[in-house]
Amino acid sequence: LQLKYPTGGPGCDLPVWRPYGAQLTTSGGNLFGITYRPSDFFAYGMDYGTGEMWRMSPRVGTAERVGGTPVESVWGVTYDTDRDLFYLLDGNLPVTHVLVLDPVTFAVHPLPQAVGYPIGGGTDLAFDPADHHVYAANRSVSPEQLLRIDRDTGAATVVGNLGAPVTGMAWDPATSQFMAISSTGVYRVDP
After folding, report:
1. Which of 142, 168, 177, 185 gets the most CB atoms within 10 Å of its CB?
2. Least confident of 24-28, 87-91, 177-181
C-alpha cells in the first residue's frame, strides 16, 4: 500500500474550490459523500439528515433532489459501474453493513455479511472497476486502514495502513489509484 501526495509534497497547488452554478439547499442541510455516475454524466451525493439523494451536474453546476431513501446519516457513497448500483455507509455507529441503493427504484438493502471491522464515522467509499471491489477507510483504528469490501457478501479484508485520516476517496481511472482527501492533504492511494 502506497500513500503519497500527487504533487510531490504537502498541500495541493490546484484551485480546488470555485463557486459555480446554483446554490444547493437541502432539507437536512448536510450533503456527504459524492460519486460520479458515468452512465448519465452526473455526480451524486446523500443528504445526511434526510437520506435524500441529490444529482449534480459537474458541467453546468446545477443540483436537484432525485429521490428519498429510508437511510439517514449516510457518510459514504460510491457507484458500481458494472451493476449500476450505489453503495452507502450509514454514519450511525458502529457501521456494520454496507448498504446497496438501486438508482431507479431507490430501494435499499444491506449486503448479507457484516463488514467485520468497526468502521468509524466520517468514512467514505470508493469502487475500483478493475477489481470489482468497494474500498473504505477504517478510521476506528490507529493507524487508519484501507479495507477491501466484497460487493456480493459485504465482508472486508485489510489491504494495509493508510497513514492519514482519510475522509474522502474516489477512483482515478487515469492512474488506476484512489484519490484520497484528509485534513492534512490530498493523496493517491495505490491498493
Report:
1. 168
2. 24-28
Q: What is the pTM of this model?
A: 0.83
Tell me the DSSP string of 111-150: -SS--SS-BPSS--EEEETTTTEEEEEETTSSS-EEEEEE
User: Exposed e or buried b for every residue in 133-158, given b needs 16+ CB within 10 A?
Assistant: bbbbbbbbeeebbbbbbbbeebbbee
* CB within 8 Å of 111: residues ≥ 6 apart: 97, 98, 99, 100, 149, 150, 151, 152, 153, 154
Cα→Cα distances 59→40, 47, 179, Å: 12, 21, 21
Q: 90 is written with which cell numbers?
A: 450509514
Q: By CB neighbour count within 10 A (0-12 exposed, 13-18 middle, 19+ buried), where does 60 fall? A: exposed
The counts of H helices and E strands in the chain are 0, 16
Rounded Cα–Cα distance for residues 30 and 148 (Å)? 27
**Whole-Å CA distances, 60 to 19, 42, 67:** 11, 10, 21
Identify whether 103 is preceded by a cis peptide bond (ω within 30 of 0). Answer: no
What are 74-95's pLDDT values in tens digits? Answer: 888 999 999 999 999 876 766 6
